[in-house]
Amino acid sequence: MLESQNILVDNITLSSTSDDFQANPGNLGNTDGFDTINSNNITIQNSWANVGDDCVSFKPGSTNIHVKNLTCYNSAGIAIGSLGQYEGVRDVVENITAEDVSLYGSRNGAYIKTYVGKRTYWPPQGGGGGNGYVRNVVYSLGRI
What we know:
By secondary structure, the protein is mainly beta.
């Protein structure tokens, strides 16, 4: 959800996988499930996702997001970020709740992705030099 406000996502099934992942496990094919960026007041509930990358990713500018009763298969988990990718840009993620999220076959649980302080190469593959903060995040995972 890009630059979205006041959105309810209810009872959605996602399937986003990459055939290349079997041949090259390091390449997830950028098969994220639910992403939020520069979005406010989003609820994702009663949904299911089979994805090769992040099941849910709260990207910069994600505020007041509530995820509940979500089941994720074969994912990278629940992510915040990536943050700090763009030099001189302040990234903010705050007021995030993820409850009753079940992860099956996940490579991670819940995690934060950031770039180092010094820029390395140029986005989208490289980046860094940005700043920001993450505040008021609550994860209550069901099953991992």
